[in-house]
């Protein structure tokens, strides 16, 4: 039997006794000189870092992205060339709940991907829905406040949620998905994933295309009713975590088909919708899915805190051949995600193993809490310099994006049809799915003031009369459509 390693302090000093504190006699008080005791207690006090403001509860696994189709005419990104296999990391999450929340709750699911490419880390931080509740990040903090605890009652507030949604018609598309059967998936293996935002591809000729990313589950979509989920939560708050971990441990590796939608740069003004609006989808009849490859998860993390809680994914992490777009929400997330990690994990979070790229990173960042190492060129700690420090490379420059207009605060609701796509989604539902949608509204709106309920019903009715009348009937509201005809 191999000799076991010797227990040490953080500094590497061997520990002689890890069972007993140093005291003044067998019954005496503990002495301050017991530095081993103090080190253990002090470290325990700091074992928790601030949880994520959103997506606090998550599960994750490693895997592989395999590219099986040629899309080189759209992008020069090496990670997306046919035949390429790249290590991946995928963190699933719920959006609204704290770390102790149950997995089986009606909520949007986070679908945050990292690819450790030969050109650096590429992070695609999305959800299991192709749209979101708001299109302007100025409203994002307000929205998230409604999902958290009421400052007086310290409980979740359905009134706050529905008050915000009913005053924000652009949220109807996402709310319709959330209240449908897909708002309560059975497991993380049984959801689709989306980049949600519009991104850009740059090809070798310097041409830009707009792109949407899709990951379709090969395990099939499976959902629970409210009653089924309540039964699960009564016995297990970790249903999704357990399912993902155990499936991978058994070798039952989940897979997703990776596809993209491609829009020529010149098509931006050809549609009734804004292609950069996060509350809208691109119709597949206009931009059909193009298959790219397969994502497989096949390895569980060895330490959840080190590899999942400290994971710092951000849409600012892109690689040559993949870029951003004028999507207002994406533009804000480029800053906010990376900044959240600087606060939550630390300014040097990028040096931790789960966040560290698999290629050499060369920058001029200095110092900060938990700096793990110095630079290989100590004299070149500024730029420009004469000491062989890293230099810019103009060959990676993206083609210019034409932007024009007067700087102002434009009303994003003016001239924006926020009812067409929710109505189309509703009409795709089977009768039993519609009935479940109505009942889910009823369950979610319990105790909400009638004027807020009625305001939301008006939005549903404008999307499709059957939608509004069905919600009204389920809630026992005497809704008269003629009252909104003149509005």
Automatic annotation (TrEMBL):
- Compartments (UniProt record): Periplasm
Q: Which Pfam families match?
A: Catalase, Catalase-rel
Task: Provide a GO biological process annotation.
Answer: response to hydrogen peroxide
Note the SUPFAM superfamilies from the entry: Heme-dependent catalase-like
InterPro entries (UniProt xref)? Catalase, Catalase_3, Catalase_clade1/3, Catalase_core, Catalase_haem_BS, Catalase_immune_responsive, Catalase_sf
> Per UniProt, which keywords does this protein have?
Heme, Hydrogen peroxide, Iron, Metal-binding, Oxidoreductase, Periplasm, Peroxidase
Top-level EC class:
oxidoreductase
User: What does the record give under GO molecular function?
Assistant: catalase activity; heme binding; metal ion binding
Q: Compositional bias of type Polar residues: which residue ranges?
A: 1-23
Q: Where is the active site?
A: 55, 127
Q: What does this protein do?
A: Decomposes hydrogen peroxide into water and oxygen; serves to protect cells from the toxic effects of hydrogen peroxide.
- Recorded protein name is catalase
Q: Which organism is it from?
A: Bradyrhizobium lablabi
* Lineage, top ranks: Bacteria, Pseudomonadati, Pseudomonadota, Alphaproteobacteria, Hyphomicrobiales
């Amino acid at each position: 039997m191999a000799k076991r390693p010797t227990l040490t302090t953080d500094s590497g000093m061997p520990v002689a006794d890890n069972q007993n504190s140093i005291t003044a006699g067998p019954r005496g008080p503990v002495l301050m000189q017991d530095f081993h005791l103090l080190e253990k207690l002090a470290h325990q006090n700091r074992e928790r870092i601030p949880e994520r403001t959103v997506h606090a509860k998550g599960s994750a696994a490693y895997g592989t992205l395999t590219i099986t189709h040629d899309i080189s005419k759209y992008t020069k990104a090496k990670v997306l060339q046919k035949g390429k296999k790249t290590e991946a990391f995928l963190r699933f999450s719920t959006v609204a709940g704290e770390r102790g929340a149950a997995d089986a709750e009606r909520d949007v699911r986070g679908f945050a991907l990292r690819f450790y490419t030969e050109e650096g880390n590429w992070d695609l931080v999305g959800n299991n829905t192709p749209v979101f509740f708001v299109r302007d990040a100025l409203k994002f903090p307000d929205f998230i406040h409604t999902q958290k605890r009421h400052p007086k009652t310290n409980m979740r507030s359905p009134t706050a949620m529905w008050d915000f949604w009913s005053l924000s018609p652009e949220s109807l598309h996402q709310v319709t998905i959330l209240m449908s059967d897909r708002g309560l998936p059975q497991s993380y293996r049984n959801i689709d994933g989306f980049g949600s935002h519009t991104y850009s591809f740059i090809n070798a000729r310097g041409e830009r295309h707009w792109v949407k990313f899709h990951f379709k589950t090969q395990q099939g979509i499976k959902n629970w009713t409210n009653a089924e989920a309540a039964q699960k939560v009564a016995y297990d708050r970790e249903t999704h975590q357990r399912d993902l971990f155990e499936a991978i441990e058994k070798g039952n590796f989940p897979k997703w088909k990776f596809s993209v939608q491609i829009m020529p740069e010149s098509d931006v003004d050809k549609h009734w919708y804004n292609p950069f609006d996060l509350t809208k989808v691109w119709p597949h009849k206009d931009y059909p899915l193009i298959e790219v490859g397969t994502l497989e998860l096949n390895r569980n993390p060895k330490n959840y805190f080190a590899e999942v809680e400290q994971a710092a994914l951000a849409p600012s992490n892109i690689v040559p051949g993949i870029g951003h777009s004028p999507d207002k929400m994406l533009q804000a997330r480029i800053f906010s995600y990376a900044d959240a990690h600087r606060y939550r994990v630390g300014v040097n979070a990028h040096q931790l193993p789960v966040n560290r790229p698999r290629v050499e990173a060369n920058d001029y960042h200095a110092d900060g809490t938990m700096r793990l190492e110095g630079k290989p060129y100590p004299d070149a700690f500024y730029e420009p310099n004469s000491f062989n420090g890293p230099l810019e490379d103009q060959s990676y420059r993206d083609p210019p994006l034409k932007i024009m207009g007067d700087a102002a605060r434009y009303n994003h609701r003016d001239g924006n049809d926020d009812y067409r796509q929710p109505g189309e989604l509703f009409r795709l539902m089977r009768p039993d799915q519609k009935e479940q949608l109505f009942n889910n509204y009823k369950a979610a709106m319990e105790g909400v003031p009638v004027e807020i309920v009625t305001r939301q019903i008006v939005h549903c009715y404008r999307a499709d009369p059957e939608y509004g009348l069905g919600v009204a009937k389920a809630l026992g509201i005497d809704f008269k459509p003629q009252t909104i005809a003149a509005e």
